[in-house]
Amino acid sequence: MIARYTLTEMGKIWSEQYKFETWLKVELEVCRVQHQKGLIPKSDFNEIENKASFSVERISEIEEEVKHDVIAFLTNISENVGESARYIHRGMTSSDLLDTALALQLSESGSLILNKLERLINILDDKAREYKDLLMIGRTHGIHAEPITFGLKFLIWKEEMLRHIERFKLALSGVKAGKISGAVGTYQHIDPEVEDMVCKNLGLKPEPVSNQIVQRDRHAFFVSTIALIGASIEKIATEIRHLQRTEVREAEEYFSKGQKGSSAMPHKRNPILTERICGLSRLLRGYTQSAMENVTLWHERDISHSSVERVILPDSCICIDFLLYEISRVLENLIVYPDNMIKNLEKTKGLIFSQVVLLALIEKGLSREDAYQIVQRNAMEAWNKDISFKELLIRDKELCRYLTPDEIEQMFDLKKVLERIDGIFKRAKKKGQR
Questions:
Q1: Is there a single domain that holds both residue 363 and residue 329?
Q2: pLDDT tens track for 302-344
Q3: What pTM did the predictor assign?
Q4: Does the annotation mark 262 as catalytic?
Q5: Is 55 marked active-site?
């Protein structure tokens, strides 16, 4: 069982306290590297390292006056460090600090997201194997098509999530970029080697070419990838919502003891978790547009992206973290009704075998058009009169010139649907091992 979701891990990363802790980590690392290069005296670096601290409340007080969060942060640090604070932020611009610290926050958030993606893939794999041979009706346009297995649905979802892992790792690698290159990226007041060493020590890579900021195509790709993961989670949730419909009832969310579905109707068992998932996925798609619009800034940088990112980056990470948790919980506790799947398979009284009959007639020498006309004529009668498709075929004199009753009987065999399912699973497993 998956424990109840809490915001503890992901929420901590995006808290004000942790943000300033990350800012301090970056500033101290820059000072350490500059000390190693002989740019900060040992006594001053020791003062900085030992005394650098902050108070969120004090930063807020200062920011109220100066209207600049980085200056407020540095002022508070200076109050605690004293005279040696003159070496802090030396040669840097605000975005050197902000973007490098943001890369660290995104890196940590990405690790949590990857862990939940891996867990979801394991659940999907388990369910795919469990239900590999569980027959159910396949639907196209919402209408009964031909039989599939429930496990095949899970295998499709697993493969999709495996692709997401590849994409997300690439996107995460993209946002793990820091910069310590100064006001417009020219290193006028700081040695590029400082940037290289700082980024390496922090587990980041330096932005190869920057202006005042790390370029926002990186972040747009990251947010877009998160939104794409959300879209696939919504896809799974939507399928479960459809399968839970009263008329279908092939699978449904777990309904716990004491749970209530409606304030007015005591009988209701509503798909509230999957509906919640579908709603939150819409938020992620909205964040993608905002992230795209952040790519375009005036000249070497303006501040229009900053206010947007304070919302979309924490929210995207928190939202996808929750969605991955929620869909894993739904799937792990999913209730499945095999008997109802069989009932639904039989609902159209054999119409699901129409293509088998069509192909058999073609094999006997009929044109596709003539064969289609014969099969469709009987299929429409079965639809309209709610009678056995197989019996209609056996009584059709024109069709029986090509197929015997025994041949027709053999075509209505559900076991044949499973003949190549194992091969699909083996191919997917082989692909995953490459």
A1: no
A2: 888 989 999 999 999 999 999 999 999 999 999 999 999 999 9
A3: 0.93
A4: yes
A5: no
